[in-house]
Amino acid sequence: MKNINTILAVGTMAAVCGAAEAAVVAAWDFQTTTNGGTAIVAAPAISKSFVANFGSGTLFLDGTNGSSNYFVPTSGTTNTELNAFSGTSVNASATIGMSTVTTGAAALAIIGGSGGTAANGKSMVFKFSMAGFSNLSMSYATQRTSTGFNSQVLEYSVDGVNWSSIGANNSIQSSFSALSTPAGVATVFGGISGLDNASDAYVRMRLTGATGSTGNNRFDNFIFSADVIPAPGAIALLGVAGLVGVRRRR
């Protein structure tokens, strides 16, 4: 029979390790409204802010929270910088119930706008809470037209004013289904530690390189996930487990 101290140590370690697991912080499929998320519609009725379809957060394209104010006409779509097009099932998590409907208004499109370059340098901003979380990762599906933006620069902030680099996607493909090798794999940025346990977390994406007024980048199925930070009590138990292990070895 195993010593009760050994069983206690193993059980405690398992409990602590189980607490430090990845969780979805916020996700957008631009369709699911079950949890109060914003469903996308085509311009000119398109919203400039989108409540997360899963988890908790908001995507801003209205000039607030460090974002740019994207132009949308009051009628028609001439020179619009935002629209809704068909989407993809790439990066749509079945685990959390993201929509796999790809037809109709299913994905966000950022468009070059007036002269084909008006939206160059503009940014969309995701805001959510990282309280109790660490090691943020983000993934999303994207594609571009031939005259659409050729660079997606990502940054993070804890105040919406001062920004630090995450990285850039400069290899945007022409089809959702050919994002990388193997086909159908989303764009991923991981190990973002600068937002650990931040009550307010901001991720900004700045787009450049568009040359056509209807040239665009399309986006679908954004997922922000992170590790759950163990509660202080669980960390204390980890210390107890270590002491028990030492005692057992003596």
Structure description:
- This protein has 250 residues and is an alpha+beta fold.
- The chain folds into two domains: 41 residues; 207 residues, Galactose-binding domain-like (Jelly Rolls, Sandwich).
- The strands form two sheets. Strands 1, 3, 5, 6, 8, 11 and 13 form a seven-stranded antiparallel beta sheet that branches. Strands 2-4-7-12-9-10 form a six-stranded antiparallel beta sheet, with no helix packed on it.
- β9 and β10 form a beta hairpin.
- α1 runs antiparallel to α2.
- The two termini are 18 Å apart.
- Helix content is 14%, strand content 33%.
Give the termini separation.
18 Å
Poorly predicted ranges: 1-19
Radius of gyration: 21 Å
The computed structural class is: alpha+beta
Compute the number of structural domains: 2
- CATH topology group of the largest domain: Jelly Rolls
The overall pLDDT, averaged over residues, is 87
Keywords, separated by commas or semicolons:
single chain, 250 residues, alpha+beta, Jelly Rolls, seven-stranded antiparallel β-sheet, 13 strands, 33% strand, globular
Q: Could you give a quick summary of the protein structure above?
A:
By secondary structure, the chain is an alpha+beta fold. Helix content is 14%, strand content 33%.
Describe how the helices and strands are arranged.
Elements: H1 4-19, E1 22-28, E2 49-51, E3 54-55, E4 58-60, E5 82-85, E6 107-111, E7 123-128, E8 133-144, E9 151-157, E10 164-169, E11 187-192, E12 201-208, E13 216-228, H2 232-249
Antiparallel strand pairs: 1-3, 1-13, 2-4, 4-7, 5-6, 6-13, 7-12, 8-11, 8-13, 9-10, 9-12
Helix pairs in contact: 1-2
